[in-house]
Design a protein that fits this description.
With 156 residues, the chain is α+β, with helices and mostly antiparallel strands. The protein has a domain at 14-46 and 81-152. It has helices at residues 23-40, 73-79, 82-98, 131-139, and strands spanning 12-14, 47-50, 55-58, 64-67, 101-102, 112-113, 150-152. It starts with 11 loop residues before the first strand and ends with a strand. 23% of the residues are buried.
């Protein structure tokens, strides 16, 4: 049975400002899961797609990685080889590092992004997760508010 990545297993709360605690940690866990899947394939060359044989194979030795039936599947697999997946993991970790949050702020969310939620008075506003972190979480399967694992609340 295929495993489909979805959002966090617990209910997520989304408001006009996002107060989902632990979203950084959840994203890091998803990055680790992607990374382990890529590393489990082992070191190897880039993948290429042979349209004639309908086969994705390694570019050096020609060994088959996957046989495909549907149009577009071979290109999709080729473009998501382990090296590409590892590059995305590295880039996503850089995004997380560039958007740390501070729990020094007290109030609505109790935390805020040190990069995006700077107060005009020099501190961090407690606006929860920033749009960048929410977009990154969406890439890893956090579903929009109308889906089942998200609860929508209105900000006071």
């Amino acid at each position: 049975m295929a495993r489909r990545a979805r959002g966090p297993k617990e209910l997520v709360t989304v408001a006009e400002y996002d107060v989902t605690p632990g979203l950084h940690e959840w994203i890091e866990g998803e990055i680790q899961r992607q990374e382990q899947a890529a590393l489990s394939h082992g070191d190897g060359p880039l993948w290429e797609y042979d349209e004639t044989l309908l086969t994705v194979r390694d570019a050096q030795g020609g060994g088959a990685v996957a046989h495909v039936i549907l149009d577009g599947t071979g290109d999709h697999i080729m473009l998501n080889d382990p090296d590409a997946a590892l590059r995305r993991c590295t880039a996503d970790r850089k995004i997380l590092a560039a958007h740390p949050y501070s729990t020094v702020a007290g109030g609505r969310a109790g935390f805020g992004c040190d990069t995006c939620h700077q107060s005009e008075y020099g501190g961090t506003e407690d606006d929860g997760n920033c749009a960048t972190i929410l977009a990154l979480a969406e890439a890893y399967g956090l579903e929009p508010a109308e889906e089942t694992d998200v609860e929508v609340v209105k900000a006071p």
